[in-house]
Write a structure and sequence with these properties.
The complex is a heterodimer. By secondary structure, chain A is mainly alpha-helical. Chain A is about 50% helix and about 10% strand. In chain A, helix 1 packs across helix 4. Chain B is of the alpha+beta class. Chain B has 5 domains: about 60 residues; about 190 residues, no CATH class; about 210 residues, no CATH class; about 160 residues, no CATH class; about 210 residues, no CATH class. The chains are: A mainly alpha, B alpha+beta. Chains A and B meet through helix 3 and strand 2 of A and helix 2, helix 3 and helix 4 of B.
């Protein structure tokens, strides 16, 4: 039997809501341009292993961002002296990220209110 | 346009992506090695962690795609590859479809041009033909005038007759076909001239008051070379001067679609054209060809019919002797009302139905072929399913294939049908009449062909769908393609039997028709068309009247007789078997006193002939004497009759000569000679009585000369033409070999034979592909079973029986049913094709042989395959 590819923790990126992965990719790229492999590592570390990005989702998502001109890519040589394809966030990518974050925060707040009304805070 | 650039630059992102993924895996592997894994283990683990790289690349690429177009293109390429791999079945499929779709396009083209399209005039939907009774021509001119004046439902009513005249422009006079129309004809139709002007009702001021001609565009183009100065020129029509007023617009040749006239002349000048002073005012003479009327706005056809009926009752009251009891009705214009319209509609609708059936049968065939191929490929399909392809994707692939095939077939069929329709449009079945079939294909025909192609592609693509949706990849991969092969009767089986039966009917009838046609070519017409020329002379058109006609005819006959190599020359008022038919006259037995029509003994064919006619036409004289120039107006009335006349009217064949019979006016006619029976109107007619009167006792100004000579027809025609020019250069002359002229009489049988032959060929093709599909399917489905049978010692015969028994059984049932139906159908055929009889051993044997050959041909490849089963190979493979 081949080995089953199990994540280290009981999490999965498959259950993320639509657009979440893109949002996280954009946010990571805003902090630092990087290539695909680094992005996977970065998201995993930042989420303290709570989120694991599958390559199967990452690359199609990157292609979507490329096509929408939210990121751009170029071939580079990494600090570790590897040939890599580095992604940069574009101006419209930054704009989109802001929009998404604010709408995400609203949604998150809404969900929090529904789940736990007593703890609601007002701005 | 970004997406266009993207299509062309797509290779770049794809390559980048592959490279990126490769590097990604590499980096992961290096990291794992850094953690202490062996290189191989690290590589493997990195790849496993990455997942299905192909699917991932595919999904990443999908982002870039103009989604469907590109994957369709991939499907198309795949389908083309598959087709190249099996060119035989591809060509068969395309040809089948091309034929079926082509046949539909041709029939629809004819239907479209003749039935669906309105006349090419403004507001054609308000135009109607006023019919009276069911004859070809049914109105008299005075009736028309009354109808036009007294109706309250029509904006205007126009009328026309069709005739032929000699048109002389100063050099080489020629025959033209003309519409003799009422002055308001063009105004009623609302047609406007291409050049010059038309004549109007205001141009008519009594008999012969409007000597004007309007040319059709086609005639102006071919005979005046588009010369714009013709307007105002004076030409001679039957020797009378007429002024050319103008040219009709292109595409307008009158209100009868299949009749291409050359010119239009006002009917008030009919006397000049025909020499007949009386006919225009004769109320009892129904020679007007068609009445066309434009309905007033807001009046329904039913109201107009009621209005016509009230005019009719006025006419009946005032002219009880002349008016018939037929009612007035309205019909669509274009095909001469219901006279041609109804049979044409029925014929074309029937043809459309038949070709639709053929297309359906073709789809059924290709469907089974597809099912067979799908069965053959079930492993491939199973593998694809197991590897994660979706069923949708596989179905789309299949439909791409079927649509590609059907489009290829559709295009081929359309091209063929356009060529055929063009030929059909240019075709003139009767050299003497300007009849043609105006069926140029238009956008509607193309659309119909395209839609038919798409629909049939979907239809036959659907057949294997269930098979694939049900396919269980696990089972198929495990067990091979041995789905349960049902023994129950399927719809496909029934379709196949029906199709084979149709094919057998068509094969039977086409064979019967061909045999009949062959026999009728060699049968006895009662005259000998070989080595005889026909000359069509109209002395009225050349300006001869009264006493000058017979003298002139005598001179022509004598001069032609003097041409070296001419054996004999005779004249006849209208030759037998020349469409549309001969003249007839009521006759009575000598003892009949009351000469009312109901007492007549017969209505025999009547010919006015010159003395040498029998010799020139090759009609053998059985008893008595031929006619002579002495049988003139002053001599007692005499006649030569045929055998049928003798036995039917005179009561005795041996004693016929010397007996008498009576004509309608009471004249007693003495029979002086007896000739053999012949065919007079159609080849399929039963034996008809005929009588021949001497030319000088019953003169006719329009005669045909029969010139018998064994000289070369071309040379003979040239010397005849120069002889006739010497006599009168203004005479219109048409010279043709009699055997060519007979083409008209053989036309229906030829057409029936050709169309049945074509349909029979199609039926045969379809049966072959149908049986082939079924047999191939059966063999491929039971390949393993056959292998086991062979392994257990089955002989070749048993293998074949197992593999193809069902196909042959269906073939036998279908052929049997078809043969019986075909024999029944030929009874109908016998009315069209002379001497068509189903009780012909050659036909029966031919049909059985043909069907057997079909079966053999169709099962040859599957049979070879079944026989080539090698159980060892088969068992090893499994």
């Amino acid at each position: 039997m081949p080995e089953v590819n199990k994540p280290m923790t009981e999490t999965t990126s498959r259950d993320l809501f639509p657009g979440a992965l893109e949002m996280m990719i954009l946010e990571s790229l805003r902090r630092q341009p990087s290539h695909g492999y680094a992005l996977v590592q970065h998201i995993q570390q930042r989420s303290k292993n709570l989120l694991q990005v599958e390559e199967g989702s990452l690359y199609p998502a990157l292609q979507r961002l490329l096509k929408a001109k939210l990121v751009k890519a170029q071939w580079d040589v990494s600090p570790a002296n590897r040939r890599v394809r580095t992604y940069n966030i574009t101006t419209s990518g930054l704009r989109r990220l802001d929009e998404q974050i604010s709408s995400f925060e609203q949604m998150f707040e809404g969900i929090a209110l529904v789940l736990n009304p007593s703890n609601a805070t007002t701005h | 346009m970004n997406w266009i650039r993207n299509i062309f630059r797509r290779g770049k992102p794809y390559d980048d992506l592959s490279e990126e993924i490769r590097l990604h895996i590499e980096e992961r592997a290096e990291q794992l090695m850094g953690e202490g894994m062996s290189p191989e283990e690290a590589q493997r683990k990195a790849r496993v962690a990455f997942g299905n790289r192909t699917v991932l690349e595919e999904r990443s690429r999908e982002v870039w795609r103009w989604p469907t177009l590109e994957s369709i293109w991939a499907d198309v390429r795949f389908a083309l590859r598959g087709m190249r791999k099996s060119p035989g079945s591809t060509i068969a499929a395309v040809l089948t479809l091309a034929m079926a779709i082509g046949a539909n396009a041709v029939v629809f083209g004819a239907l479209n041009a003749l039935i669906l399209l309105p006349l090419n005039v403004p507001q054609a939907e308000r135009l109607f033909v006023i019919q009276h009774g069911s004859d070809v021509a049914s109105h008299s001119y005075p009736d028309y005038l009354d109808l036009r004046q007294r109706n309250r439902s029509f904006d205007d009513v126009a009328v026309f007759a069709i005739s032929q005249s000699g048109l002389d422009t100063g050099k080489d006079p020629s025959n033209v076909w003309e519409y003799e129309t009422s002055g308001n004809y063009f105004d009623t139709l609302r047609v406007h001239p291409y050049l010059g002007r038309f004549f109007h009702a205001s141009d008519e001021h009594g008999p012969n008051s409007a000597p004007y001609v309007v040319l059709t565009y086609a005639y102006w183009h071919s005979h005046f070379q588009d010369d714009r100065t013709v307007v105002g020129r004076v030409v001679r029509l039957n020797r009378h001067p007429f002024t050319i007023l103008g040219v009709a617009p292109p595409g307008f040749q009158g209100t009868i679609l299949f009749f291409a006239s050359d010119i239009f002349v006002p009917i008030v000048n009919h006397e000049q054209l025909s020499g007949d002073k009386m006919i225009l005012n004769a109320r009892g003479n129904h020679w007007m060809f068609e009445m066309v009327a434009r309905l007033k706005p807001g009046i329904a056809p039913a109201q107009a019919t009621a209005d016509l009926t009230s005019v009719d009752s006025y006419l009946k009251k005032n002219y009880p002797k002349e008016e018939s009891n037929d009612a007035y009705t309205l019909a669509r214009p274009g095909l001469h009302g219901d006279y041609m319209g109804r049979p044409m509609r029925a014929f074309l609708t029937g043809l459309m139905l038949l070709s639709g059936l053929i297309l359906l049968a073709a789809c059924a065939n290709l469907g089974s072929l597809f099912a067979a191929r799908a069965a053959d490929r079930s492993r491939e399909v199973a593998l694809r399913l197991a590897l994660g392809s979706s069923r949708n994707r596989i179905l789309r692939q299949l439909f791409t294939e079927s649509l590609l095939l059907s489009l290829a077939g559709g295009v081929a069929g359309l091209v063929a049908s356009i060529l055929l329709l063009r030929r059909l449009s240019a075709w003139q079945p009767f050299p003497r009449f300007p009849l043609h079939v105006p069926v140029s294909p238009d956008i509607k025909v193309y659309l119909v062909a395209l839609v038919l192609a798409l629909v049939s592609g979907i239809l036959f693509g659907i057949v294997p769908v269930r098979q694939i949706l049900r396919a269980n990849p696990y089972e198929i991969v495990k067990a091979g393609s041995t789905g349960a092969f049902g023994r129950r009767i399927t719809v496909r089986d029934v379709l196949l039997v029906v199709q084979i039966a149709i094919c057998a009917v068509l094969v039977t009838s086409s064979m019967v028709a061909v045999r009949g046609l062959m026999r009728s070519m060699h049968s006895n017409f009662g005259f000998e068309p070989r080595n005889a020329m026909l000359v069509d002379t109209d002395l009225t058109a050349a300006g001869y009247t009264g006493e000058r006609v017979p003298a002139m005819q005598r001179r022509i006959i004598d001069d032609l007789q003097a041409i070296p190599g001419v054996d004999s020359v005779g004249s006849v008022n209208y030759p037998p078997l020349e469409p549309p038919g001969t003249w007839q006259g009521l006759v009575y037995t000598d003892t009949t006193a009351d000469l009312s029509p109901s007492n007549a003994a017969a209505d025999p064919n009547m010919f006015n002939v010159s003395p040498d006619y029998f010799r020139a036409s090759g009609t053998s004289l059985l008893a008595g004497r031929a006619l002579t120039w002495r049988d003139d107006a002053n001599a007692p009335r005499v006649a030569v009759v045929n055998r049928e006349f003798a036995s039917k009217i005179l009561g005795s064949v041996p004693d016929a000569v010397g007996r008498y019979f009576k004509l309608r006016d009471g004249t007693r006619v003495r029979v002086v000679g007896l000739v053999e029976d012949g065919k007079y109107v159609s080849l399929t007619e039963s034996q008809q009585p005929a009588m021949f009167f001497p030319l000088l006792q019953s003169p006719a100004s329009w005669t045909w000369l029969v010139v018998r000579s064994s000289r070369d027809p071309q040379q003979l025609a040239a010397s005849m033409r120069s002889t006739l020019r010497d006599i009168d250069p203004g005479m219109v002359v048409a010279i043709r070999p009699w055997s060519t002229e007979l083409g008209g009489a053989l036309f229906p049988s030829r057409m029936a034979t050709i169309s049945l032959g074509v349909l029979g060929m199609m039926g045969a093709m379809l049966s072959i592909t149908g049986i082939f599909g079924m047999a191939a399917y059966s063999v491929s489905k039971r390949f393993k079973e056959l292998g086991i049978r062979v392994a257990l010692g089955a002989k070749k015969k048993e293998v074949l029986q197992a593999a193809l028994g069902r196909a042959f059984k269906l073939l036998a049932i279908g052929s049997g049913v078809g043969l019986v139906l075909g024999l029944l159908a030929t009874k109908v055929l016998a009315f069209i094709v002379y001497q068509a009889t189903p009780r012909d051993p050659l036909v029966l044997a031919g049909v059985v042989l043909a069907m057997a050959a079909l079966g053999l041909l169709a099962t040859w490849i599957p049979a070879q395959r079944a026989l080539s089963v090698n159980p060892l190979v088969l068992l090893r493979e499994e």
